[in-house]
Amino acid sequence: MRFDIYKQMWPLARHIYQALCIEKTIEIPNVTNDTKIDDIYLKEPWFSITQEIINEVSARMDTAIVHAKEYQENKEKIYTDFWMLPPSVAISSNIQKDTTQLIYGKKCTCSFVLLDDFTGELLAIWSNYLEAGFPVDRYYIAPILEGHESDNELFNRRHLKLGEKLRDIAKKKDRTLVESAKYILDILYDLRNEKHPERVKANFFICMSLISGSINQMVMRSNYDVLATIWDGVNSKNLGYPEQYFFYYPWPPILNTLFAAPRDIWIQRLTSLTTKGRFYLNHQETKCSVMNEKFGRYRYLIPNKEQLLKAKIPSIKEGRNEYIFPETENPIPLDIKERSFIE
């Protein structure tokens, strides 16, 4: 089963691993060959957690679009919001245009494909459209979300050559996630061209992520931590893991170069490109009470910049399943104010 592969990835999601495997604050579903996605996500607490993460991402995209418009009209209105590519990375308004165009081009659609760890089934897709470096539009497809049951029609759309439903493409045991991404993109291309034929010449990327990785990103407290774990997830196969935890298909060319850099260099370069190197305390747009409680947003360590740059990361090759951070004389208190910078 896919679950046997995906659960091996959890050490790279520090909050998830701590909650599921160490503290056991949330029960792992009893996965059998007959388990379907509804068997898991219509029960608590997974139902509430899934509603929260999708609503949180949607709210982040909406805020990003509103604030981008305000900034373009008045350059003195500088916000630190979440990047729409991806929506877990903090980025400041006065940097967004140049950084986004550098990595993604002048016009871009990026769809985030969220997979269920337990069955491999497609759980949700959120798509963002950007022009001239700023977010313009977004939509999401999430039949598991209350009020979006009609999205099942899109999830049941079949690949023209494979004959497989969109929701099932990544479930196939002998298919890698990269191969799945190629087929998923085929269908999303068709959907994009039907909904927005005027965007047919824009770049199109998809980012694949397991829900465990996405939840982990949402409960992390700092921009440095988020960017560090993105590097870990992209480079996971080099550490002995069976899949990449996160990846794009196709890869934006410059990201291939950036991810090839050592971990500490990646962190410094990407924080420079998003917040001018400043350490930002991530906020949340919505009340994610169940997700935060179950996955320890306000209980677990907030590593500072030095700790993250020097951390030893979980590695199957080295037999290590937990992050090891060096001791510090400047620990970050758990009750620190969010939506702020530490200089």
What does this entry show, briefly?
With 343 residues, the chain is of the alpha+beta class. 39% of the residues lie in helices and 15% in strands. It has helices at 2-6, 14-22, 37-41, 46-73, 93-104, 152-155, 177-195, 211-219, 223-234, 253-259, 263-275, 289-294, 305-310; strands at 80-82, 90-92, 107-115, 122-131, 134-141, 203-210, 246-249, 279-281, 340-342.
Write the layout of secondary structure elements.
Blueprint: H1 2-6, H2 14-22, H3 37-41, H4 46-73, E1 80-82, E2 90-92, H5 93-104, E3 107-115, E4 122-131, E5 134-141, H6 152-155, H7 177-195, E6 203-210, H8 211-219, H9 223-234, E7 246-249, H10 253-259, H11 263-275, E8 279-281, H12 289-294, H13 305-310, E9 340-342
Parallel strand pairs: 3-6
Antiparallel strand pairs: 1-2, 3-4, 4-5, 6-7, 8-9
Protein described:
- With 343 residues, the protein is an alpha+beta fold.
- It is built from 13 helices and nine strands.
- A five-stranded mixed sheet has the order 5-4-3-6-7, sandwiched between helices.
- A hairpin with a 6-residue loop joins strand 3 and strand 4.
- It is globular, with a radius of gyration of 19 Å.
- The mean pLDDT is 94.
